[in-house]
């Protein structure tokens, strides 16, 4: 996280081993919520944009860290998220790591869906306690493209990854993952 000193909008680093997703995650303020949609981590114009957190997510302890990124044909940014619609691909890549100044958190993907905000509240950053998180995860699993394993007790923290999809207007590929450990130190490569 040495880059954060030079680029203070960097809030963390997202890695999904074996997928090509291995990028800094930025966050702008409420006044320009999609600043990084078409800018790189240096703030320079870039058609790929950057992975960015929804403006009202609190890092690292927010209940739902919502990360957006472009679905690039080149496979960069969130260009490989659509591959998670295959259960076999999900099974091989269901571990997600998010590194912040507080450490590295491991998440497990519990749901892969095609949705829009009228179907699923993926833009909801905070919940009413544990029961609110459980309901979000329950709803995500019910909308999933396939059934995933039950991991038992649900953490109070989830990670939601969102990118454009083209099945209908405003469709999104949405992936919901639950934090497994508060912080880990294993090698994630």
Automatic annotation (TrEMBL):
It comes from the Bacteria. The keyword Signal does not apply. InterPro entries: Sortase, Sortase_dom-sf, SrtB. SUPFAM superfamilies: Sortase. Pfam families: Sortase. Signal peptide: none annotated. Keywords: Hydrolase. The active site is at residues 70, 164. One of its GO terms (molecular function) is hydrolase activity. This is Sortase B. It comes from Faecalicatena orotica.
């Amino acid at each position: 996280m040495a880059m954060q000193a030079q680029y203070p909008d960097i809030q963390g680093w997202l890695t999904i081993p074996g997928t090509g997703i291995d990028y800094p995650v930025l966050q702008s303020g409420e006044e320009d919520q999609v600043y990084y949609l078409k800018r790189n981590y240096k703030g320079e114009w870039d058609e790929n944009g950057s992975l960015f957190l929804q403006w009202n997510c609190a890092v690292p302890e927010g209940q739902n860290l919502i990360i957006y990124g472009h679905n690039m044909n080149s496979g960069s940014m969130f260009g490989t998220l659509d591959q998670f619609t295959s259960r076999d691909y999900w099974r091989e890549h269901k571990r997600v790591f998010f590194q912040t100044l507080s450490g590295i958190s491991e998440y497990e993907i519990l749901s892969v869906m095609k949705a829009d905000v009228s179907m699923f509240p993926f833009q909801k950053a905070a919940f009413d306690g544990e029961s609110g998180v459980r309901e979000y995860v329950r709803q995500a699993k019910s909308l999933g493209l396939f059934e995933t394993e039950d991991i038992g007790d649900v953490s109070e923290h989830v990670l939601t990854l969102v990118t454009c999809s083209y099945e209908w207007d405003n469709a999104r590929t949405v992936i919901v993952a639950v934090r497994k450990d508060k912080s880990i130190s294993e090698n994630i490569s």
